Structure formats: structure tokens, C-alpha cells
Amino acid sequence: MITEGTSTKVSGLPGTVEIAGAPPYLFEWSESAHWLPLAITGLALIAWIVSLRFKRAWAALFGFTLALMALWTLQSARSGLWLPESASLIADEVDGLFHLVMALTSIFYLLTQGVLIWTLLQPAPPGGRAARVHGNHLLELVWFTVPTGLLVYIALVQLPTWAKMKGQVPGAYLAAGYQPASDPADLLLTVTGRQWEWRMRYHSPDQPMPVNPLFWAATPAAEDIHAVNELHAWQGAKVRMMLRTTDVIHSFFLPQFRFKQDMLPGKTIPALLHTDRSNIEADGTERVWEIACAELCGGNHYRMRGKVVIHRDKKEFMDWLNRQKASQSERKESAAALPTPKPEARENQ
Which residues make Cβ contacts (< 8 Å) with residue 203, sequence separation at least 6? Predict the structure, then answer.
């Protein structure tokens, strides 16, 4: 791994991948990738050998592991290893939900592990047998109602963010259903997953916006503009995406936008992307924002990758779209100029 400024280049695979916005790490992963698992394994082996003689050594092992995980979690958060940079208006809301769930699960994890360590430190009961407990209704009621209440709270508090991600009626609390008449999008495109690539189809700006984008998504027009493995928009745009798949289930994942949505065969799933930041620097350098498939979709699943390009303004995006349109027209003209095989040649084939 090579760290430069605020970007991190990850080597070790064919080529070099630059993770945009990643802060410098405190140490090189390439140096710790081998010795760290061996060191942890060695410590666990020593603790097991010690526990054969000293029964309470297991409590020390669990306590050490608990402290190590807590420190590692805090260090990861401080070093920026949790989440990539955000490029969406709702990214802070999604991050807040992540931190909420992380905090709640951490509390219960520390509580259960603390009880486990306390139990290991207790002396053996007389006769070597623990007392039998036939139940405690109050305790059972508490550990049922408290987690249930927390899960219901999480389910309710995430509804406004989910509605914004789906992009239904502006300000809606529930993502009840897509209503084309109230679509607030500035840009319309379909994203079609297929083994093993992403196919983007943009609505032509020369044509009026379709009355029903769902119908448009299922019926390609000759004026549409196509791209492969590249999602383009501009900073500040509201991008209406119609997500489809032609074969198996894919999961369209945009880490910087905190967006992930399964693509289901036979369905067109609308989603709204709120772009908030460009990944093109003032000197024209493009920071890599990756599109990934987060659902195992076959033998070449690892190849199903693309990139997001958020231009600095609409004019810059339109320049790219016009170039894409011109290139597409040239390919069509070249294909039309090819000689048509004679019927006899077809029969011989």
C-alpha cells in the first residue's frame, strides 16, 4: 500500500487502485498483513496452554480479546477505516444510522462479554456442579422487551432516510410507492446489471422527459445514450435511476453515496441519487469512486466493477454526454456501412 496525501493506493493486485479520500494510515498494511494473524494465533496458543494449568486464564484471554477489539475499533474510527468519503446529501443520515446500530450492538457485546468474564472468574461450586435454574420470568421479560423495543426504534428512525433514497414524494416519511408525476429528478437513466457488467442508458436531453419513467425503462428509444460500467452525473443533480437485471440477482453498490440496492429479475426498482460532491479536481484529476456488485452473481462476480464520475457542473456533464452521443452515432454509421452478407453466404454458414 502506498499512501500519498489524502489518497491511498492499494497494490498487490493487477494494476493499482486508488481509494479516493482515504486518510494516511498509521502503519503500512503490507507490513502487518503477515505477522498480525500469526501474532494473534501465537497469543491464543499460549493462553490455551496456560489455561490447562490455570483455569482462570480463560477469563484473562477473553478480557484481553475484548480490550484489543475495543482499541482496534476506536483506532479504525480515528484512522478513517470505517467509511469512505461521502458524496450524497443523505450520507450523513446513513452514517448516523450506522453509528447508532454500532453503538447499540457494542453496548450489548460489552455487556455479554463482561458477564462471561465475570462467570469465568467465579470459584467452582461445591461438588463441581452449578445450581440448576428453572427460569426467571422477570429476567426473560426484560431481555425480550428491551431488544424488541430497540429493534422497533431502529426500524422507525430509518424510515425517512429510506424514503429519500427511494425518492418518492418530497418530504415523505414512508417509501410507500413510486409516483412518476411527482418525480423531482434532473437526470433519468436505467442501470441494468448483467453477468458481468453494468449497462447504463441515459434519457436524451433533446427529448421531453417521459410521463412514466417506469415504462421508458422497459422500452429503449433510439435517441437514448448508452455507456458501459460508467455512471455520470453532475454535482448537485438529483439522479433518477431505474435498476434492472437481465439474468440473476445483482446488488448495485455505490460506497461514496451510501447506496446499495438489490436488482431483482423481472422488476424495475426506482431509486434517487442526491449528488453532493464532485470527484474531479480543479486540475482535471479524477478520484476513483467505484461501482461494485455486492451480491455473488457467478464465477466472474469479481469482474463486475465500474466507476462513478460526478462532473463539477451540468455543462461539463453535457460535454461528456455529447461526446458519448457522437461516438455512439459513429459506431452506428460504421455498422450500417458494413456490407450485408448475401443469402447464399448465410446458407453456407
Answer: 187, 188, 189, 209, 210, 216, 224
* Rg (the chain; Cα; Å): 27
Q: How far apart are CA 322 and CA 74, in angstroms?
A: 47
Rounded-to-integer distance, Cα 252 and Cα 267, Å: 14
Q: Which cell is 200 given? A: 447504463
Give the Cα separation of 87 and 131 in Å (integer): 57
Please report which helix (H) or strand (E) contains residue 232, including its range.
Answer: strand 230-234
Indicate yes or no: pTM above 0.90.
no
Q: Give SS3 for 8.
A: strand
153-157 LR contacts (CB < 8 Å, sep 24+) = 154/97, 154/100, 154/101, 154/104, 157/97, 157/100
**Residue ranges of domains in the chain:** 1-30, 48-121+141-157, 180-335
Distance between CA atoms of 235 and 253, rounded to whole angstroms?
A: 19
Residue 189 burial (CB count, 10 A): 23
Rounded Cα–Cα distance for residues 80 and 7 (Å): 12
pLDDT in tens, 296-342: 999 999 999 999 999 999 999 999 999 998 888 877 777 777 777 66
Q: Which CATH superfamily is domain 180-335 in?
A: Cupredoxins -  blue copper proteins (2.60.40.420)
| Sequence-separated (6 or more) residues with CB below 8 Å from residue 75 | 26
- The grid coordinates listed for 173 are 416519511
Q: All 3 cell numbers of residue 82?
A: 470505517
